[in-house]
Amino acid sequence: MSDADRVALLSNPGFGRIFTDHMVTVRYADGKGWYEPRVEARAPIPMDPASAVLHYAQEIFEGLKAYTLPDGGVAMFRPDANANRFNLSAQRMAMPALPVETFLQSLHEIIRIDRSWIPQDPEGSLYLRPFAFASEVFLGVRPATEYLYLVIASPVGPYFSGGVKPVTIWVSPDFTRAAPGGTGAAKCGGNYAAGLSAQAEAAEHGCEQVVYLDAVQRKYIDELGGMNVFLVLDDGSLVTPPLTGTILSGITRDSVIKLAQRAGRRVEERPISLDEWREGAASGRVREAFACGTAAVITPIGTIRGEDGDFTVADGGPGEVTMGIRKQLVEIQRGLAEDPFGWVHRV
Ligand code: PLP
Ligand code: COI
Asked: Which positions does the record annotate as the modified residue N6-(pyridoxal phosphate)lysine (predicted)?
């Protein structure tokens, strides 16, 4: 592809639609462990129709971003945290742990070779998608003995097409995402497959995302299909659902907690019922709400829609606290502000 064609593509990349020229692959076999990473031209991967992943979905993934820094360098945001979460997901899905150094090396290699694909505009970044799946050709149900790990990369703009404007979210009356003891805290493809019907239902109701309620009492907020949730209360404090095993331990969530605490805000991790959110929005106790994640960054939540109607947080616009935390986070990620936590990992 010519440089001019690439620049044109990168001017409006959308999310996850276009991909760079390369991929990194690492094979695993029982008794041999993980092989050395190989950088290859991005290409279809041949698969036997009996590959275990196609039948029993033994698969995990991660998502993180690389940014261009003001001095022209490139940095990833907290890739060590993604490496650790990848291995927690692997453990839950009975897959072998990948050495953290191999995970980081694979990311370095794809960024080095495909660095010209990183969008230069202030909303753009290179989304990195490391993933691993059971490649063993076998139809018995047990943990596989062979796996393939890959990293692909996609230049991206904002996840939601409207940019940073408040989203409307759907409270599914029927579907839950994860039950205690299930796979909610793992980043495995099956969780997302199981959420697609609810996501389609949300879209039919004019909503961008689903907010899942807990599977036991159908009362407390868990998270969105691909993001964690925070509320900002009238005393300036933040509340977010606790990590009890049914939600993903978001790296953005953790970063928001640390940024808010550094700014002197109280942050409580505790159960939040949908009723508390609705009543708080009506009384003014809940001033702002936002979703956060690698893809979504920090996205204000305006309206919550359910079968029994809508409610809106404040005037439905982006909140001041939300946008302030967003600005701080983005500036650290892009090397525009000091990084007191050591989150920015230069490539
Ligand atoms: N929750 C779910 C279900 C997600 O898919 C994601 C995205 O990765 C998140 C939360 C946010 O996690 P992170 O901030 O690590 O991207
Ligand atoms: C991410 O934010 O990295 C995710 O995996 C979430 C998904 C909605 C793209």
From this structure: 187
Closest CA to ligand 1's atom 11: 293
Q: Is the model's pLDDT at 123 over the cut of 90?
A: no
Distance (Å) from CA 225 to ligand 2 centroid: 9
Q: What is the pTM of this model?
A: 0.97
72 lies in the same domain as 192: no
Instruction: Give distance in angstroms: CA of 63 to centre of ligand 1.
Output: 8
Report how far ligand 2's centroid is from the alpha carbon of 227 (Å).
7
Is residue 181 a part of any domain in this protein?
yes
Closest CA to 28 of 151, 147, 150: 147
Residues 292 and 298: beta-carbon distance below 8 Å: yes
**Which residues have C-beta atoms less than 6 Å from ligand 1?**
63, 223, 226-228, 248, 250-253, 293-294
pLDDT at 162: 72
